[in-house]
Amino acid sequence: MNTKSKIATIAVALGMAASSSISHADEDADLVVNGEIEMVVRTAAPAHLEGAVSTIYSGWVFRSDETQAMQADDFDNPGMLFVEKGEQLFNTAMGADGQSCASCHQSSDLTNVRATYPQWDAEHSEVQTVEMQVRECQTEQMGMEEPWGINSGDMLDITAFIASIGRGQIVDVAIDGPAHETWELGREIYYTRFGQLELSCANCHEENYGNRIRADHLSQGQINGFPTYRLKNARLNGVQNRFRGCVRDTRAETYGIGSDEFVALELYVASRGNGLTVEGPSVRN
Amino acid sequence: MFTRHIILAALLGVSAGTTQAEVVSPSAVVVNEYGEIVQSLTGIAGDPARGQEVMTTRGLGNCIACHEVTALQDYPFHGEVGPSLDGVGARWDEAGLRGIIANAKAMFPGSIMPSFYKVDGYTRPGDAYTGKAAEGALEPLLAAQDIEDVVAYLLTLTEY
Q1: In A, which residues are within 8 Å of B120 by CB distance?
Q2: CA distance A118 to A166
Q3: pTM to 2 decimals?
Q4: Cβ pair A252:B132 closer than 8 A
Q5: Whole-angstrom Cα distance, residue A276 to residue A42?
Q6: What is the percent of chain A where pLDDT is above 70?
Q7: For the complex shown, is ipTM > 0.90?
Q8: Contact residues, chain A, for B126 at CB < 8 Å
Q9: I need a labelling partner for B91 at 20 to 30 A (CA). Which of A49, A216, B9, B100 fits?
Q10: Are residues A175 and A277 in the same domain?
């Protein structure tokens, strides 16, 4: 047992409330939200990861007991406040035609969206994220001249709502067919060592998940919990914004949110989580 | 400003800064076939106390982000990504340690460890941690004397 383990054990033994940054994650715990949504937080890796990892884990597994507990009950999950705002936006008329999302969609018809995006859009001949799909609806169906920004508060709220109604669905993004070329680009980016620190996604999240880097407990970098409520900044965080932060922290020039590279990376990383369940909005540190 | 000094020095045909006259630049470092660097990067003996500061300071080496060091227990949150450095001074000599810190990949191809004395060969190098593209020539992650100081500190870690 190393020193930190001893300290954590002693802290628990004394009944002390250890801070979330040092208390141990219960890597064997299971997640059931509200006592009814059963999440898959660990499962066999999809076939395309053969030789890389054998088991995939939700980032929830690597978080402290306190953070894990926050996600298990919607009354404790601060992200659910943004889901309520997102649901209001879903029913709010926007654009020249006075339509809302609800004019065309019943939310109960959208429960598989989060689990299957990014996905190929034949009409536009491109892989689209959920955010891109919302923007397409806004400009092409709802007559909005200026669709929401991909990383805007409104977009985060509505994508949190869309994720929340898909919670518990098994992530299953398609990587074959016309999306495959984009997926290959994402895979190449995942394994590229960027920046002056020369770190790839894989260096930390494939080769070192479960290890600590300073006070952080490295996860597999799964994105099934996005958008994520982060305790660090007390707001929702979109996945490509998280990508940007990671690439920045390698002392690299990042790609932009919405860039072809980050769309490809989002598809690839999502596919590494095929088999986990949609958790957004999850709670992370 | 720094760039201007270099240009001025070049125009005058003198070396950049008299105090750095002995410093071996990253591109001039001689690495042997084992990935070792035999020659000091500065010619000035390393200061182990300063080396400890470099090891534990986030804006400098931040070595404990990835390595556990029992002798540095007073500093919290040691990482687990790299091997423990306990006894590292008994496992390696000065040339080996200098080589690993400057460019670990020369000794261990594919190592995750950043190269602390290298200024080129990067993919999309940034302007420090801004996320923006680097402008002009890159500085190595650590200065030459920082590396000599860390080597001196590591050589004191002879206990397992």
Answers
A1: none
A2: 14
A3: 0.89
A4: no
A5: 7
A6: 91
A7: no
A8: 195-196, 248, 250-254
A9: A216
A10: yes
